[in-house]
UniProtKB/TrEMBL annotation:
InterPro entries cross-referenced by the UniProt entry: DnaJ_domain, J_dom_sf
PROSITE patterns: DNAJ_2
Annotated coiled-coil segments of the chain: none
The J domain, residue ranges: 5-82
Official protein name in the record: J domain-containing protein
Highest taxon, organism lineage: Eukaryota
């Protein structure tokens, strides 16, 4: 992926919730899907549209992964604290 921030790619705030990320991805996918190109578009137009669509898809996946990783880290920390409380 390029140096673009995945939140910027999707046009959302870095503090967005998963549902907001999903909505932003769906909106971008509807706007950039290569099948939505006008009839008679050149192969170069199609190539650029496919690339743009993939950037949105990668932005969505990275944003979701970032949130899930954060949630997993919080859950692991919570479980570790619970285990310490049981031991002590």
């Amino acid at each position: 992926m390029s140096s673009d921030n995945f939140y910027d790619i999707l046009g959302i705030d870095a503090n967005s919730q998963l549902e907001d990320i999903r909505k932003a991805y769906k909106r971008r996918a509807l706007q950039t899907h290569p099948d939505r190109l006008p009839q008679g578009s050149t192969p170069e137009d199609k190539r650029l549209a496919e690339e743009n669509f993939r950037r949105g898809m990668l932005g969505y996946l990275e944003a979701c992964f970032s949130i899930q990783s954060h949630n997993r880290a919080v859950n692991n920390a919570y479980e570790s604290m619970q285990q310490l409380a049981v031991v002590n």
